[in-house]
Amino acid sequence: MKKKLTRREVLKVTGLAAAIGPIGATSGACEEARAPAAPSGAAARPSHGRYRATVPDTLDLAACAELAINGLAGTLDWEHVPEFYFRVTLAPPTMVHDALSFCACGPKYFESFPMMRAMTGSDLYADIERRYRDYMLGSIGDDGLFYAKIGPERPWDKTSPEDYANIYGQGRMIRAMLAHYYYDHDPEWMKRLAKMVNKLREVAVYKDDYLYYPTSPGYGDIFSYPKSGWKITELHRGPQETMADLPNHTMGIPTYLGGTLLPLVRYAEAARDEKSLDLAGKLTRFLLMPDSAWIPDGYAKGVTPAAHGQFRGHFHGHTMTLRGILAYGVATNDTGLKTFARDGYEFARTMGISRLGWFEEFTGKHSHETCGLGNMVALGIQLSEAGVGDYWDDVDGYVRNHLVEGQFIDLAKMKGLNPSLSAEQEKMLERSIGTFAGWGTPVALGTVMMNCCMANGSQALYYPWERTVTYSDGTARVNLLLNRASPWLDVDSYLPYEGKVVLHNKQAGRIHVRIPGWVDRQTVRCEVDGKPRPTLFAGNFLLLDTLRVNSTITLTFPMREETQKFVLDDYGHQGPQILKTYTYDITFRGSTAVKVVSSVEETKTYENRKPAAVPTYAVYQDRGQLRKTSTPMKSVERGVSDARILSW
Ligand SMILES: [Zn+2]
Question: Dihedral sign, CA of 401, 390, 494, 23?
Answer without folding.
Answer: positive
